[in-house]
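Please complete every field before forwarding. Incomplete forms are returned to the sender.

SECTION A: IDENTIFIERS
Entry label: holo-245
Bound molecule: nicotinamide-adenine-dinucleotide
Molecule representation: SMILES string

SECTION B: INPUTS
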Amino acid sequence: MKVIISGYGRMGKMVEQVCRERGHSIVDIWDNASDRDKLSTVPDGVVVIDFSLPESAVENILFCFQKQMPVITGTTGWYQQLPEVKKMAEKFNGTLFYAPNFSLGVNVFFQLNRLFARMMTSLTGYRVSVEEIHHVHKLDAPSGTAIRIAEDILVSHPEFDSWQNSPDVPENVLPVISVRQGEVPGTHKVVYDSDSDTLSIKHEAKNRKGFALGAVLAAEFVQDKKGVFTMRDFLIDRGFPQEFL
Ligand SMILES: NC(=O)c1ccc[n+]([C@@H]2O[C@H](COP(=O)([O-])OP(=O)(O)OC[C@H]3O[C@@H](n4cnc5c(N)ncnc54)[C@H](O)[C@@H]3O)[C@@H](O)[C@H]2O)c1
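SECTION C: PREDICTED COMPLEX
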């Protein structure tokens, strides 16, 4: 597979390493908008893997649609523009795979969280909270992963009207707590706490490799497909039990 890396920061460098390990060739690297705009001809069978900035992701995605290059993006913080991006994918018959978290472990965690929320909603006396810890360079808070976790909890917990990125929230709001600490690659926790006990589930990334590997596997998965894809499509293809998706 021929790969263009869009965003050559912490994640872009890890994607490069994983691509090389899997025998893919890196044909271009963009680390700003002008690198991207210098692309003169589109190499045959190329895919773009984007881990850039919240404010540059959409432009990069639309550029890829126009050039008929499948694009995989792990960039978070732009999802308010998702409906518009989906329309553009359709208009240009483009290929987009987006995920707030490409770690396969986190995607198992998402399913555990939904099941956990369904079980816990039948019990009284538990207060639920979501916590995410990331390195101090992270630009968005809460993480895209924490937002997905919170929204999945809301589906099963009608006592909440919404979530808020604060530890101090009224009764009808689910608290999502963001901590920025050192070089932590990404930790997510869901805690149900009562006067008598605490139940929790936690995913702790040890490094960035799991995210990069997931993105490269996603690129391998979509390289010959058209449309908009998420980890759900990938997991179904991999035989993940559908009753949990
Ligand atoms: N989905 C996941 O699994 C996952 C995992 C980790 C990080 N992320 C997200 O990925 C993004 C990147 O994270 P990071 O830690 O590598 O950040 P980073 O700051 O280390 O790297 C971002 C890079 O993008 C470059 N850039 C700026 N403008 C650009 C443009 N127009 N086109 C291409 N590149 C441009 C910057 O120069 C920088 O090198 C963030 O949004 C982060 O939240 C997602």
